[in-house]
Amino acid sequence: MNWTQAFSIVGTTLFSVGAASAILFALSSWLGKVWASRILEKERRELDIYKETILSVRNDKVVTYRAALDVVSNILAALDAHESGRVKPENAGKIFDQFNDNRLRVYGYLAMLAPQPVMDAQDELMDYVLQITGGSAEYNWETVREKAIKFINEVRKDIGIDKKPISYNGEL
Predict the structure, then answer these.
(1) What is the DSSP annotation of the chain?
(2) CA triple 150-153-159, angle to 5 deg
(3) From first to last of its 172 residues, what are the pLDDT tens digits of the chain?
(4) What is the H or E stretch that residue 94 is in?
(5) 69-95 b/e with 16+ CB inside 10 Å = b?
(6) I want to staple 137 with a disulfide (CB 3.0 to 4.6 A). Which of 17, 33, 131, 157 is the partner?
(7) Burial tier of 25 (Cβ tally within 10 Å: 0-12, 13-18, 19+)
């Protein structure tokens, strides 16, 4: 074997190994991209499901909190009307029965979604309203307002509107 044949064999071998390496590199690169896109798509689907779940829970909370605030505002308006003498005594019982029915329903709704600080603030407000309607506490607008704002602030924290509490800055 002469030097030309030896160089030819070595050159052919190197070319074959280089070509095979290039083909393997291209295939592995392509396969890596396919796997990466499949993994990314799976992660994207899981993230979308998670996002939809979080948004659904948040929306449920907003709806439930609105219902709770409607019940609270109705009974506070009725208490205010009663204290100012605008509600006849025979209508007061009907208003209380309606409030009590709604209060129990809202408690169930809140218990499914609300964290304990929201429940505690709601309990404190409802207990005070029940004490007023039961005659064991005097109606005091400032106390009612304070307890209602505390409840609203806990709701705001839970749904992420704002972590800073609101306060009443009026004169009444």
Answers:
(1) --HHHHHHHHHHHHHHHHHHHHHHHHHHHHHHHHHHHHHHHHHHHHHHHHHHHHHHHHHHHHHHHHHHHHHHHHHHHHHHHHHTT-S-HHHHHHHHHHHHHHHHHHHHHHHHH--HHHHHHHHHHHHHHHHHHHTSS---HHHHHHHHHHHHHHHHHHHTS-SSPP---S--
(2) 145
(3) 676 776 676 667 656 666 667 777 777 788 888 888 888 898 999 988 988 988 888 888 888 898 888 888 888 888 788 778 787 777 877 888 888 888 888 898 899 889 999 999 999 999 998 898 888 999 888 999 999 999 999 999 998 877 788 888 888 7
(4) helix 89-113
(5) eebbeebbebbeebeeeebeeeeeeeb
(6) 131
(7) exposed
- Per the document, the length of the chain is 172
Q: Hunting for tokens 């029940």 — which residue is that?
A: 130
**Chain position carrying tokens 């100012």:** 84
Enter the tokens of residue 10.
């070595």
